Queue: 4 jobs
Job 1
Amino acid sequence: MKNKLILLLAAATALIVACATSPLGRDQLILFPDEQLDQMGVTAWQQLQEQTPVDDGRRVNRYVACIAQAVTSELPGAEAGGWEVSVFEDDDVNAFALPGKKIGVYEGLLGVAENQNQLAAVIGHEVAHVVSQHANERVSTAFATQTGLQLAQIAAGATTPVQQQLFSLLGLGAQVGIVLPFGRAQEAEADLIGLDLMAKAGFDPRSSVELWQNMAEAGGQQPPEFLSTHPSGASRINNLNARMPHAMELYEQARAQGKRPDCGPP
């Protein structure tokens, strides 16, 4: 029993030590090293490429890669550069970014994001999820919850079934943290950080509002897949507009520095 209590205390201490802060100052629980999340992202990426045909058209890939490169070049330190980009042959209005520097854009999105500025808003938003460690946060929260249950049952003498559940959670960690929708706080952060990223790259941040309006209109009564996992509505646009003066300052600074992306139409 003594050993079990020590294990409980050790786990609680680990959770306290693992507290982190997001780029906008929100407290986060981060339990896993970046390398482990990167490997999860790479594995998920490989599976997606096996399951969904990739568009090998030179023009559309050049267009999307140009925008993605401009946006990711504004990331700090080692996070900038080296991102792999693919366009998937799928009519879903969707996009994603994964730990391990992977960006995927579905062809359906290109009909809704009407220009490079609007597509930069989507890519900035998705990249912001990665650099803000939102996937790690999701996996860590799920793991901590299940670990608490496990330790309680260890103290009661029942271990094996819960351990198996934990191993299953770790094996599906990428899906838990990446495929399931992010929470409202994470979405709000991704909106604002993504807005700043696109502005720093020289894309007009005002197009982000137009993009979300297009998204809302694209599906009529049935919103596109992107919005089914991303909260939408007036609150999102209000938050973007509140941040817009700051984003416009970044945009004007970028333009003054000669950052004027010209990625052309797809």
Job 2
Amino acid sequence: MQFKLNAKFTPKGDQPKAIEKLVEGLQKGDRYQTLLGVTGSGKTFTIANVIEKVQKPTLIIAHNKTLAAQLCSEFRTFFPDAAVEYFVSYYDYYQPEAYLPNTDVYIEKDLEINMEIERLRHAATQALIYRKDVIIVASVSCIYGLGNPDVYKKTLLTLGEGFEESRDYILQRLVEMYFTRSEVLERGKFRVHGQTLEIMPADQEVIIRVEFDGDLIAKITRFEAVSMKNLGTEKSITIYPAKHFVVDDETTQKAITQIEKELEERLDVLEKNGKLLEAERLRRRTKYDLEMMREIGYCSGIENYSRYLTNREPGTPPYTLLDFFPKDFLMVIDESHVTVPQIGAMFEGDKSRKTSLIDYGFRLPSAYDNRPLKFPEFESHINQLIFTSATPGKYEKEKSEQVVEQIIRPTGLVDPETEIRPTENQIQNLIPEIVDRAKKKERVLVTTLTKKMAEELSEYLKEAGVKAEYLHSEVDTLDRVGILENLRRGTIDCLVGVNLLREGLDLPEVTLVAILDADKEGFLRSDVSLIQTIGRAARNVKGKVILYADRITGSMKRALDETDRRRARQIKYNIENKITPKTIEKAIESIVDHELNPQVTREFIDLESIEDLPAVIRQKTDEMKIAAKNLEFEKAAVIRDEVVQLRKLKIK
């Protein structure tokens, strides 16, 4: 299939020229280009037009999950028939393994996986295998190890009506693909009742029922996972592995031999250096891991042996999402002034943590190869790349064959007015501004310097009668998405945050951005940060920015000068072309469609269509217990009410 852009509007302002230049650059083979587009100039729409014209599978990298979710939603609107997928870290909570030698404290790895995001990750890699019209919107999670794509592809299981396959052979294959047997069906599990096999794939909310007649597959039927509504029969179906990291028995046995050899060599080094405690610790821990791998093919922390399990040489880069793409793909790095440094910092941060673990006998040196890509390795994966930013960094400018400017907005909107006010009584000064805008159904963003300040200010505003909420990096991914939707819908009038409010958040209802302590020179108040924050008010014709400061810093001066320069050019263009500025109109979509909100499906359960009622009740009861265990009591209460309804139906 081909990319076909679906949009109610055509390119305007600087967009037509920018699209033409970027496409021309790609067609003549430019490897690096930069789209320097001011906030609200429609950089996303420009990139969508470029994708349609060049027809290449595309990877878009954003610097946080919230921005990635928003971009994914927008690209799904632009390309409803294409595979637009979301790929971010699936950890709701992650404490990496670490050792602190100064205090002799070992911290075990602790994590909590979000199964919904894990499903979306599987959907992303699977789309890359069987489609060309693919756009993956990812965070920097895409440069971390993911498993060998060639092995992943070879492990696929195709089932078809009339195929001669014994039930036991298929069960064995499912186990090799990391599916587990369970009476309660969840993603990545299967169950067997006589001649009937039911599978729940890792990437879908469906159950696949395979019915056998001896060693012959007689029928394949798909059912909606919760209601068991019959979705129809299939002539054939492909099952993908339940995990990205797939290893066969032969590779595991070979890896065990190699790990044993490395262990002996490392023990020799430690003992010769008098590190007897470290040697004994390493021997005990590694032997235990090897025993687990022999018995069940898996051990806790198995990723630390990934070099052997993926047949890589020492020091070679891990397989990542980038390896799932065809060679001729397009990469876009959004908000590149933040994302590029983030990509570059990942390797060193990982290495420094591993060094202590290896030096003190918690891990073998091969654990170094379980890592994100080094920056030069990341660059080697680049076929053609477009950086997008309102404030591109030195790296982007030096690398790019051309920098394409997009200063004029299609809507005629100009950069917002700016005003400097003293910091004394800044909150008391701000509250009437928020209240005034709330009455007009407008929204306000407030940026603070710390997370604690954001939380305390939001509480203070609530006590003052303002519908306020805070947003920062410790808020769960899906909760962040919901908070932003609530701001747009008017459930919240004021959002208080730190640097999450800087890049890429598309909130046209916002008419005021307040920057507290704007004169505190530093990363969060640099000229780049200030320009980006000022840009949050550039999507509404009433946009205004108040900077609370007692002096004008160098960063403030540069940011205000650049804002004034752009504003003057935009006003001049509007006058010359007789354009009246209009606020951006944008539908309020549930970010990343309904896929990030499993509760959406609950609203549409057709109780009359449920066939296997006891199984559904068991499944829902398990969901309720899990929600309660995770302290998600509101969610647990919703599921409890469903279970009560289902039990009433059962009695009837």
Job 3
Amino acid sequence: MDIKHHLSDELLSGYAAGTLAEGWSIAVATHLALCPACRSRFKQFEQIGGQLLDAVEPQKLEASTWDSFKDRLQKTPQSREPSAPRFEIKQPAVIPEPLRSYVDGDLPDLKWKSLGRGAYQVPIETGDSETQVRLLRIPAGKPVPEHGHGGRELTLVLSGSFHDGTGLFARGDIEEADADLVHQPIASPDGDCICLAVTDAPLKFQSWLMRLVQPLIGI
């Protein structure tokens, strides 16, 4: 497996700090399970974070300062959003952990839902209200409708490959798209392409027909 498309420093540092939402964390951790190069970079971010914590000198709080701090905590609304999870990185499989636990199995166990034109999805439930997470299966040689993005999109290839004008993405490769990218991924002709896709906003389809059915397919 020759992975050519890797995680950005922003995503790795956010994952190391535990600040990513659950959906992004699933994509990052699953890529790390497949990519030795990014695992090595991730360890460096963890080491940097540990060194920064060690360099912080604890400050002695006066009684009045502590009382003020407790008072602020009591008055601050507590968020009900779940904290971003941290995942143990395990040996890669067709669907590696942590994603395998989210879908309760491997490819033969999945219950695909039709999107039309031979494409399928498996929506993945999380405790995260910020992102939407799904598996996508695109038929060999077929395109995804051309679209832009209302926010960020992470696409991690688990099986097969696709190309979209920015490059070829195969197993383990991850593509990070934003509002500046309009593309039309096309699955390679040698087999279906199965991807993990995480978004934080609806896609912006160029076709009026796709915009019409978009509420029905939930993408």
Job 4
Amino acid sequence: IAPRGGRIGLVSKSGTLTYQKMFELADIGFSTAVGIGGDPIIGTTHIDALAAFEADPETDCIVMIGEIGGDAEERAADYIKANVSKPVVGYVAGFTAPEGKTMGHAGAIVSGSSGTAAAKKEALEAAGVKVGKTPSATAALAREILTSL
């Protein structure tokens, strides 16, 4: 996929879902796409990308893809609520993941209620993020928002 420039800032833990969003929204295009990975130790965080997108005049809408494990999405939700004025659309992968099982890489593991997809979705929605029920629904939400701007 060779994305063209556009109005969406994309930050994602999932490489596969990054490709899917870039394909689904290729006609709109991306100001920047950042793949942060889902391992426990990363260089760039959701918050780093959100701050950059908020400051970028070329970004009109932010798409954030998260997944089970850790608390990065919950921390990002707090940041969004306090610091982001642009519309944010989200998706959290892993609603059907069994507790205690690693899914794909070391960071995607749920223990107890910490790091669950449901907890992340709830935190994001409380911050005003429109959270899609499926990856494709997330793309549709971003498209709707950009059409209304």
